[in-house]
Write a structure and sequence with these properties.
The protein is mainly alpha-helical. It is built from 13 helices and two strands, in the order ααααββααααααααα. It has one domain. It has a two-stranded antiparallel sheet with strand order 1-2. Helix 1 packs parallel to helix 8, helix 2 runs antiparallel to helix 8 and helix 6 runs parallel beside helix 13. One of its GO terms (cellular component) is plasma membrane.
Length: 360
């Protein structure tokens, strides 16, 4: 919205700053951060009052989690609110990619909110039916995939770009939309599975979104793409403002989610943020790089899949408990030890993902 202040500029004054994506990204970060600090405590108080017993704790979960009973959930509302406010304020609202990522984020956030509400109101961990959640998730992702393809350059439409191999494209044709569905739904549910310890999910999301924001900015500038030998996708640079909002809102949320958490993100936040990562990857044509940058989420999801399939075949378990962060809890690792080590792994994977921009 503030971008339109450039209409008041003569080219050399303060208003000219609003032309620069980097300046507006800084503004989005600060706006989201301040939003989190200002509204965090009041929101937590409202959630605690409305929810009473807070988020239900699984009976079959790690024993140490029962002390968390009574902690309110739906804290993702704080992140989503900060993200929406900062993006609408600082991004160019005539940019289609901004609306694509917002559409996915808000839609998945709504699914998560309905699931959290069902869990809290019924005081059980069932929530909304998995079939309904997946069905809506598939529909939203399909719309986003088709929408994004319409704004990709003709030579990139329905193509899969391979990292490292600069000139290699795989034409997916009609399979591009189903592929986009897998990326977005997979990212959303992977982040959802990772959100099991205080502070565990939000920092890797911030790291991944920051990395994807840098990539979006790079592929949205023709001079950068020529230097880096990556595919140019006009307009994606604005996504940096969106990811700056995630980073600022995430920091504001982490202030209250740091151990011991005063509020849980809930599906409201985890589904919204995971879907956002998938939508950014689809928009920037860096779907496979997301699997590297978000490798921690991939491992968390794979640990559940492996555990379920192996148990069905043999009646035995590969891990003491899945997702894998619970496995390490069962092995005796302290919660902060798991969280910080997983943060370190996320940072390493982000650096590797960024390196794919230059290693061609």
């Amino acid at each position: 919205m503030l971008y339109w202040l450039t209409a008041l500029s003569d080219g050399g004054d303060f208003f000219n700053l609003f032309r620069y994506i980097t300046f507006r990204a800084g503004g989005a970060f600060l706006t989201a951060l301040i939003f989190g600090f200002v509204f965090g405590k009041p929101l937590i108080n409202v959630l605690r009052r409305k929810q009473g017993k807070g988020q239900p704790i699984r009976d079959d979960g790690p024993e140490g989690h029962f002390v968390k009973a009574g902690t309110p959930t739906m804290g993702g509302l704080l992140i989503v609110g900060a993200l929406l406010t900062s993006t609408l304020l600082w991004a160019r609202l005539d940019n289609p990619f901004i609306w694509i990522v917002l559409f996915v984020t808000m839609s998945y956030g709504a699914i998560g909110f309905a699931d959290d509400y069902a869990k809290v109101s019924k005081q059980n961990t069932a929530g909304v039916s998995g079939k309904i959640r997946l069905g809506l998730g598939f529909l939203i992702a399909a719309i986003a995939g088709f929408w994004a393809a319409q704004y990709h350059p003709p030579e990139l439409q329905n193509q899969l770009a391979l990292p490292i191999f600069k000139d290699t494209l795989i034409n997916l044709g009609y399979l591009f939309v189903p592929f986009a569905v897998i990326v977005i739904v997979g990212a959303a549910n992977s982040v959802n599975l990772t959100d099991g310890l205080d502070g565990l999910a939000i920092m890797p999301v911030m790291i991944a979104s920051g990395t994807l924001g840098v990539i979006a900015y790079a592929v949205g500038r023709v001079d950068f793409t020529e230097y880096l030998d990556v595919h140019y996708v006009p307009g994606t640079g604005e996504i940096l403002i969106f990811t700056a909002g995630i980073f600022g809102g995430g920091l504001g949320f982490l202030w209250y989610n740091a151990p011991p958490a005063a509020v849980f993100m809930g599906d409201t936040g985890s589904l919204a943020l995971g879907g956002a990562l998938g939508a950014i990857a689809i928009s920037t044509k860096h779907e496979l790089v997301l699997a590297i940058v978000g490798g921690l989420f991939v491992v968390e999801a794979l640990s559940v899949i492996i555990q379920v399939l192996y148990f069905k075949r043999t009646g035995k378990r590969v891990f003491l408990m899945a997702p894998i962060h619970h496995h390490y809890e069962k092995k005796g690792w302290a919660e902060p030890q798991i969280v910080i080590r997983f943060w370190i792994i996320s940072l390493i994977l982000a650096i590797i993902g960024l390196a794919t921009l230059k290693v061609r």
